[in-house]
Amino acid sequence: MLGWLPLRRVRVRGGSMAPALSDGDVVVAVRRRPRVGDVVLVTWDARPGQLSVKRAVLRGPDGWHVEGDNRAASTDSRVLGQARVHAVIPWRLWPSPGRV
In what residue span(s) does the Peptidase S24/S26A/S26B/S26C domain sit (predicted)? Predict the structure, then answer.
């Protein structure tokens, strides 16, 4: 999903990660091993080709249980099952640069 580059710029869509991230925020995804609590870039087998930004909650045998910070506005592992994590999102580039 990231190609051969270790970094990828990603635009957040939707409100599932509020208040940490908002619709339209631009973040950096870094290919590295996730830890519980990290904001991550994921895919699900149930939705091939769709990238999502969620928070890593628990490492499972077949992937990660991930959830949006705004539970009321998030479709995540509670519905779609374990996700495949492709990158960790440590920084926001825009509109207010800094750590996520």
Answer: 10-71
Whole-model pTM: value is 0.93
- In the chain the domains, ranked by start, together with CATH numbers, are 7-95 (2.10.109.10)
Over the stretch 21-64, which tens digit does the pLDDT of each residue have? 999 999 999 999 999 999 999 999 999 889 999 999 999 999 99
| CA separation for the pair 25, 69 (Å, rounded) | 15
d(CA 25, CA 14): 10
Burial class (CB in 10 A: 0-12, 13-18, 19+), 71: exposed
